[in-house]
Each structure stands twice: as C-alpha cells, then as structure tokens.
Amino acid sequence: MRSEEKTVKIATLGREHEYLVPLINEIFERNGISFTIRDKFDRAYDGLFIGQKGLGDLYVFEMDVERAKFLLDEILTAQ
Questions:
Q1: In the predicted model, what is the mean pLDDT of residues 47-51?
Q2: Domain range for residue 50?
Q3: I want to staple 12 with a disulfide (CB 3.0 to 4.6 A). Which of 30, 45, 49, 54 is the partner?
Q4: Are 6 and 64 a contacting pair, CB within 8 Å?
C-alpha cells in the first residue's frame, strides 16, 4: 500500500528553482510519481535563510526514486 511506503529525499530545491515547481508537478503527475516538497521557510525569520537552506527538500516514494531523479535532472538541465 502506498501510504506505508518509505519516502526518499532526492533533491534540495534552491530559491532559483521556485518557478519550476509547477513544471515538476505537471511532469511528475503525468508519469504517476507522487511527491512532496517539505519547505524550509522559517516563519520566525520571514524566510531570511531560504538562500542558505534552499526552498525545500523534494521527496518521492522509494519505488519512484530512479525515474524521479531522471525526470528532475531533465527539467533542471533544460532550464
């Protein structure tokens, strides 16, 4: 069952990748890959450290890691 599967961090997205999130969402969705981005926005400092920590960590299910890494690499190199 999908809800019991382990998620794996495949990348940390930097602030410069913020505009790519909708594209990542569309391409992953088309390929049946569920993902989540755990943001690193620190509300106490109004996002001051996003430049250092990145926008967020991208997680996918363990079974989708290879495909997701490949697709993400394609997206990032095409920008």
A1: 48
A2: 2-78
A3: 54
A4: no
* 71 C-beta neighbours (distance < 10 Å), count: 19
Whole-number pLDDT of residue 50: 45
In the chain the first and final C-alpha atoms are separated, in Å, by 35
Those residues with Cβ within 8 angstroms of residue 53's Cβ, 6 or more apart along the chain or in another chain: 12, 40, 42
Number of domains in the chain: 1
Q: What pTM does this model have?
A: 0.78
Supply the CATH number for residue 72's domain.
3.30.1370
- Structure token pair of residue 63: 């079974």
The pLDDT assigned to 24 comes to 96
Tell me how many helices (H) and strands (E) the chain has.
Answer: 3, 3
